[in-house]
Inverse folding.
């Protein structure tokens, strides 16, 4: 099976240029991440790598045929103030278009959630935002236990100038005294 060829590893700052290239490619296709390609800057990528390494998780998948290429990445980190010390936010996942719908996203996200569940007991809540039209991503997150928590009307303005809602989604750790369960 295709997905058995892919493996997940931790990312680090030396992956900066590979991750930037991946984000530029994904951003060039509208409908996925919020940024456009020219907004995927060194500062943007360096900033999320450093924050994830400092107080979060950042994972990557290499191209099995070319380890110099990163074909998928996910990151999330704590917002940085004490009241949110139990929260991972700013979660973003991207899979290179040539490798989508082959199970890579699922492998990467499952690894992220396993890591959070087992190695970050302090994290009780994980949050992200997906635009309403990104039904694929919303369905994807729901399979991992994320729930839509509302609608931020007219928050996103697409390339055509059309406004659409952003959907905040959250995962809450289940356990005694925590979360709805
Ligand atoms: C969303 C994204 C991360 C999914 O990664 P992927 O590698 O393509 O997804 P997978 O192949 O692992 O599929 C996992 C699940 O996603 C769903 N999915 C994937 N492709 C789909 C499609 N074309 N239509 C409907 N559902 C689809 C399925 O539910 C699948 O679960 P299954 O195993 O039960 O079939 C990827 O498409 C992506 O990077 N998109 C662009 C960036 C983006 O939108 N990021 C999220 C911003 S909020």
């Amino acid at each position: 099976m295709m997905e058995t060829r892919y493996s997940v590893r931790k990312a680090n700052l030396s992956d900066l240029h590979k991750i930037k290239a991946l984000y530029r490619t994904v951003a060039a296709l509208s409908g996925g991440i919020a940024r456009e390609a020219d907004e995927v800057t060194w500062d943007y990528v360096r900033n999320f790598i450093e924050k994830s390494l400092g107080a979060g998780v950042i994972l990557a998948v290499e191209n099995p045929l070319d380890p110099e290429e990163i074909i998928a990445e996910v990151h999330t980190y704590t917002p940085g103030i004490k009241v949110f010390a139990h929260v991972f936010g700013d979660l973003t996942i991207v899979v290179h278009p040539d490798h989508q719908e082959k199970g890579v996203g699922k492998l990467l996200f499952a690894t992220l959630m396993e890591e959070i569940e087992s190695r970050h007991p302090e994290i009780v809540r994980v949050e992200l935002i997906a635009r309403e039209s990104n039904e694929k991503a919303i369905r994807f997150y729901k399979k991992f236990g994320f729930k839509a928590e509302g609608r931020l009307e007219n928050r996103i303005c697409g390339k055509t100038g059309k406004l659409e809602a952003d959907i905040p989604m959250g995962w809450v750790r289940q356990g005694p005294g925590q979360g709805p369960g």
Summary: Residues 26, 32-33, 93-95, 100-106, 130, 134, 136-137, 139-140, 143 surround coenzyme A (CB under 6 Å).
